[in-house]
């Protein structure tokens, strides 16, 4: 089975262990792995076994678990040395994958081979989905543990059995990849973070050295720039921005619908953050081979403007022949709580009446780099707007 000479497959594996206790080591109680085609992510083969640790005192306090791992089952299971050849053949020279394997599973496997005086297997490469998804998917799913991710995607409870866990890991990876693909392909429809304003930070809280950009590659070789802050997607919230110019319908999207936007005065701290994003993203755009003209986020020295400004875009989506805006728009009067506004349809006159010059808004927005028809830059797209009553 796993003894195929083809070492290009991905092996997703997991170990279950005794609970770490002060002054004690950790015993491996179960090893499980699946072999996955790297082109289709289809499961090809599987293997799992319970294991009896060399130090039986590690299971002296082992209570019956709901997943079926108990003392009786462990005592009647093989030791690691008895299945070492099988584990070596499964892992050696293949791409290793798993959740938190670099810090947990991989060291345990290597230690198990050292204990029986055998050289441990070595991977062709390693895919640890914990740091990978934390960086690419962000912490929208909380602590990014497998159980939390599974709950986020509605995949059920984690059983803490090796084979179940590696299969769940693979499904989580597929779900995350699909969401990221859709968000990048249709930024006007899909959002980087569905968790509301909790994932948005004030420009005052941004550490400029912690801003970084990377290229994300997608289907047919397309790629986009991803802007991060402390390993999370950078999203900003700014309060009391003054509207300088009201709703504009000058631009249209790929579907021919108006790309609604308005211009606000930019605070010094906001300008500093956006300038840093502009500089990093433009440099990466040039380094990646783009020849498009870069359009800066912040407009300055326009003569008739007394302060720097930025343009905020309102999201629209077209369903058939019907176009509607999907940016949440709330109204706020004096000290009252904001109330979500309900619109009858795509009535631009209603928006024009709200976003008049001199009006103040609180804005929660994302940064979407673009490169289209020889023009490149970053578009600020509002997820939520709170309009203050004059």
Features of the shown structure:
8 helices, alpha/beta, 18 strands, 390 residues, OB fold (Dihydrolipoamide Acetyltransferase, E2P), Nucleotidyltransferase, domain 5, 2 domains
Outline the structure in words.
- A 5-stranded mixed sheet has the order 3-2-1-4-5, with helices on both faces.
- It is built from 8 helices and 18 strands.
- Helix content is 25%, strand content 32%.
- By secondary structure, the protein is of the alpha/beta class.
- It folds into 2 domains: 10-182, 2-Layer Sandwich (Nucleotidyltransferase, domain 5); 188-388, Beta Barrel (OB fold (Dihydrolipoamide Acetyltransferase, E2P)), CATH 2.40.50.
List strands and helices in order, with pairings.
Blueprint: E1 10-17, E2 28-36, E3 43-50, H1 71-75, H2 80-91, E4 95-98, H3 101-115, E5 125-128, H4 129-136, H5 146-152, H6 162-185, E6 211-217, E7 223-229, E8 232-233, E9 235-252, E10 258-265, H7 268-287, E11 293-295, E12 309-314, E13 316-319, E14 322-325, E15 328-332, E16 339-340, H8 348-354, E17 360-372, E18 375-388
Parallel strand pairs: 1-4, 4-5, 11-18, 12-18, 15-18
Antiparallel strand pairs: 1-2, 2-3, 6-7, 7-8, 9-10, 9-17, 10-12, 13-14, 15-16, 17-18
Question: Gyration radius, to the nearest Å?
Answer: 26 Å
- Uncertain segments of ≥5 residues (pLDDT<50)? 192-198
Give the N-terminus to C-terminus distance in angstroms.
73 Å
Q: For the record, what CATH class of the largest domain applies?
A: Mainly Beta
Content-based structural category: alpha/beta
- How is the CATH topology of the largest domain named? OB fold (Dihydrolipoamide Acetyltransferase, E2P)
User: Portion of residues in helices?
Assistant: 25-40%
Arrangement of strands in the largest sheet:
3-2-1-4-5
**Number of DSSP strand runs:** 18
Number of domains: 2
Report strand %.
25-35%
Average pLDDT taken over every residue: 84
Global shape = elongated
What's the total helix number? 8
- Proper CATH architecture of the largest domain: Beta Barrel
Characterize the main sheet. 5 strands, mixed
């Amino acid at each position: 089975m796993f003894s195929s000479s083809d070492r290009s497959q991905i092996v997703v594996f997991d170990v279950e262990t005794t609970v770490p206790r002060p002054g004690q080591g950790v015993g491996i109680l179960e090893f499980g792995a699946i072999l996955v085609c790297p082109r289709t992510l289809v499961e090809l083969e599987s293997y799992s076994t319970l294991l009896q640790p060399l130090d039986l005192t590690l299971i002296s306090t082992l209570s019956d678990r709901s997943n079926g791992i108990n003392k009786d089952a462990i005592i009647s299971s093989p030791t690691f040395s008895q299945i070492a050849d099988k584990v070596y053949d499964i892992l050696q020279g293949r791409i290793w994958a798993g959740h938190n394997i670099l810090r947990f599973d991989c060291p345990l496997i290597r230690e198990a081979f050292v204990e029986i005086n055998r050289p441990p297997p070595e991977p062709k490469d390693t895919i640890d989905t914990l740091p990978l998804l934390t960086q690419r998917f962000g912490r929208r799913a909380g602590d990014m543990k497998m159980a939390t991710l599974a709950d986020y995607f509605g995949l059920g409870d984690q059983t803490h059995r090796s084979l179940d866990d590696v299969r769940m890991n693979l499904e989580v990876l597929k779900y995350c990849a699909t969401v990221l693909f859709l968000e990048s392909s249709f930024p006007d429809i899909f959002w980087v973070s569905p968790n509301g304003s909790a994932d948005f930070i004030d420009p005052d809280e941004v550490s400029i050295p912690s801003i970084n950009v990377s290229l994300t590659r997608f289907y047919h070789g397309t790629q986009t720039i991803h802007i991060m802050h402390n390993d999370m997607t950078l999203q900003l919230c700014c309060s009391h921005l003054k509207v300088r110019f009201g709703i504009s319908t000058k631009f249209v999207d790929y579907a021919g619908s108006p790309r609604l936007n308005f211009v606000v005065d930019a605070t010094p701290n906001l300008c500093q953050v956006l300038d840093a994003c502009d500089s990093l993203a433009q440099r990466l755009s040039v380094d990646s081979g783009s020849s498009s003209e870069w359009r800066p986020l912040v407009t300055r020295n326009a003569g008739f403007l007394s302060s720097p400004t930025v343009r905020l875009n309102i999201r629209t989506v077209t369903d058939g022949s019907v176009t509607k805006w999907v940016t949440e728009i709330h109204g706020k009067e004096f000290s009252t709580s904001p109330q979500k506004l309900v619109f009858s349809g795509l009535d631009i006159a209603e928006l024009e009446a709200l976003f008049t010059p001199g009006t103040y808004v609180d804005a929660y927005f994302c940064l979407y780099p673009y490169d289209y028809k020889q023009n490149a830059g970053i578009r600020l797209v509002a997820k939520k707007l709170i309009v203050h009553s004059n």
